[in-house]
């Protein structure tokens, strides 16, 4: 018998969650369509970096509390089914509202009456009620809950226990069952109506995205006046309680913040002006830096290096990384572009030392900690984060 099946169970959210429940004593099966990740996971190898997960995966494989599969029949055996598939935008920046329906249409023949279905992906507001209604109309009597994941990528296992868990459901019984389950991970539960819970998650991500945009816009204003944003940033934040937490400038990227800001915009009839402005600022930063660099250097005659291609520091995930946008822009402007990243293996990724040696100008694309100790051989390094000694913050 299986306690919990996680659909999307080998992903960045699904796998740490499954490991946490397995550690808490539940029998967990991670269902995923990616056969490679399933094989790696069953072999005890994490498909991505998450602090503490390597050891825990081996532990729960040994205790036989955790396994991965591509076979959707496992759904029949579970008391609880958790869904954490990706919820991407389409090419016009609209949420792909069909992803949950498609998944459930494919898998719903395996759902059985009496199960608890917990949706954990970040979804377009109203999706939970929509799913509950569709399942009921298909004659499937399951309790439907929405309990959004709010961990930061790379530290999911730690944050699963330290963050309060938001719980919502389409019936009181769904809420009670979801609460009983998440109490295994944290005593801190916050109950909301389903759309309130869906909005909470989108608000958290859009707020973070807007804060990054404010920092990036302030950076560009200061830079246009030849001023160092970080001197101003220090003055704004040091011993000034109301400036506390104001972010540094940098690429605001990754698979969640942009996407969720756009989901909120669609929900508000595309009239989320703050969100759209944040998108324009954040997405504009790579081109801004290239344009400023082109005013200072003859890029057409230079080999330029990018250090860091993943979407954030010390992370192995390149999804929606703005380093790729920087690379595209530089490929158009410069003689040649070379890229490094200690966390990625690609035919075109070179060791950082080689990129430094062959480039006349460098950009920090991702502020990985390893670059703090890198010898830049006295070459100019454009560093919007102020992350490496001697980096240029004014371009
Ligand atoms: N990455 C994060 O740190 C994070 C944090 C909070 C919330 N979220 C949200 O969680 C959701 C999942 O994000 P993620 O980063 O884990 O994505 P991911 O791509 O890492 O994981 C999704 C997994 O689902 C699998 N999958 C897709 N369709 C499937 C199907 N029909 N059946 C079975 N498996 C299927 C994929 O193969 C993949 O392994 C998204 O809604 C995201 O916005 C992500």
Keywords for this entry:
single chain, 395 residues, alpha/beta, Rossmann fold, 2 domains, five-stranded parallel beta sheet, 41% helix, 14% strand, binds nicotinamide-adenine-dinucleotide
Outline the secondary-structure elements.
Layout: E1 2-7, H1 14-23, E2 28-31, H2 35-42, H3 53-62, E3 66-69, E4 78-83, H4 98-107, E5 116-119, H5 127-137, E6 143-146, H6 156-162, E7 165-169, H7 172-182, E8 189-191, H8 194-224, H9 229-237, H10 257-267, H11 273-296, E9 303-307, H12 322-333, E10 336-340, E11 349-350, H13 352-358, E12 361-364, E13 381-382
Parallel strand pairs: 1-2, 1-4, 2-3, 4-5, 5-6, 7-8, 9-10, 9-12, 10-11, 12-13
Antiparallel strand pairs: 6-7
Helix pairs in contact: 1-3, 8-10, 8-11, 10-11, 11-12
Bound molecules: nicotinamide-adenine-dinucleotide (NAD).
In short:
This protein is an alpha/beta fold and 395 residues long. It contains 13 helices and 13 strands.
Report on this model:
With 395 residues, the chain is α/β, with parallel strands linked by helices. The protein folds into two domains: 2-199, Rossmann fold (3-Layer(aba) Sandwich), CATH 3.40.50.720; 206-382, NAD(P)-binding Rossmann-like Domain (Rossmann fold, 3-Layer(aba) Sandwich). Helix content is 41%, strand content 14%. The protein has 13 helices and 13 strands. The protein has helices spanning 14-23, 35-42, 53-62, 98-107, 127-137, 156-162, 172-182, 194-224, 229-237, 257-267, 273-296, 322-333, 352-358; strands at residues 2-7, 28-31, 66-69, 78-83, 116-119, 143-146, 165-169, 189-191, 303-307, 336-340, 349-350, 361-364, 381-382. The protein has an eight-stranded mixed β-sheet with strand order 3-2-1-4-5-6-7-8, with helices on both faces. A five-stranded parallel β-sheet has the order 11-10-9-12-13. β4, α4 (98-107) and β5 form a beta-alpha-beta unit. α1 crosses α3 (53-62), α8 crosses α10 (257-267) and α8 runs parallel beside α11 (273-296). The N and C termini lie far apart (61 Å). The mean pLDDT is 97. Bound molecules: nicotinamide-adenine-dinucleotide (NAD).
């Amino acid at each position: 018998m299986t306690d919990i099946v996680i659909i999307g169970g080998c992903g960045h959210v699904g796998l740490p969650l499954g490991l946490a429940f397995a550690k808490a004593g539940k029998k967990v099966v991670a269902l995923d369509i990616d056969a490679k990740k399933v094989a790696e996971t069953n072999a005890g190898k994490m498909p991505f970096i998450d602090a503490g997960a390597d050891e825990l995966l081996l532990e729960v494989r040994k205790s036989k509390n955790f396994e991965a599969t591509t076979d959707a029949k496992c759904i029949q055996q579970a008391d609880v089914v958790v869904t954490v598939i990706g919820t991407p935008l389409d090419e016009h920046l609209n949420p792909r509202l069909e992803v949950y329906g498609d998944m459930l249409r494919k898998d719903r023949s395996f759902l059985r009456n009496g199960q608890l279905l917990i949706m954990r992906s970040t979804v377009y507001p109203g999706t939970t009620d929509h799913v509950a209604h569709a399942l009921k109309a298909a004659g499937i009597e399951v309790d439907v809950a929405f309990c959004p994941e709010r961990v930061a990528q790379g530290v999911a296992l730690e944050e699963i226990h330290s963050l309060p868990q938001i719980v919502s459901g389409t019936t009181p019984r769904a809420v009670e069952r979801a609460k009983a389950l998440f109490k295994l991970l944290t005593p801190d539960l916050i109950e909301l109506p389903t759309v309130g819970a869906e909005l909470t998650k989108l608000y958290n991500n859009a707020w973070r995205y807007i804060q990054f945009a404010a920092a990036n816009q302030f950076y560009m204003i200061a830079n246009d006046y030849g001023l160092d944003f970080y001197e101003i940033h220090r003055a704004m934040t040091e011993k000034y309680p109301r400036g506390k937490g104001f972010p540094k400038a940098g690429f605001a990227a990754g698979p969640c913040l942009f996407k969720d800001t756009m989901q909120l915009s669609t929900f508000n009839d595309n009239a989320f002006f703050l969100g759209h402005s944040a998108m324009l600022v954040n997405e504009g930063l790579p081109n801004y830096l290239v344009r400023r660099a082109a005013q200072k250097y003859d890029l057409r005659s230079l080999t330029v290096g990018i250090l860091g291609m993943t979407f954030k520091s010390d992370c192995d995930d390149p999804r929606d990384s703005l380093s790729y946008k920087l690379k595209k822009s530089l490929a158009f402007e410069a003689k040649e572009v070379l890229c490094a990243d200690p966390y990625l293996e690609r035919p075109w990724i070179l060791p950082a030392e080689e990129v430094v040696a062959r480039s006349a100008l460098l950009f920090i694309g991702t502020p990985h900690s390893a670059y703090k100790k890198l010898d830049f051989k006295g070459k100019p390094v454009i560093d919007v984060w102020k992350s490496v000694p001697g980096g240029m913050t004014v371009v």
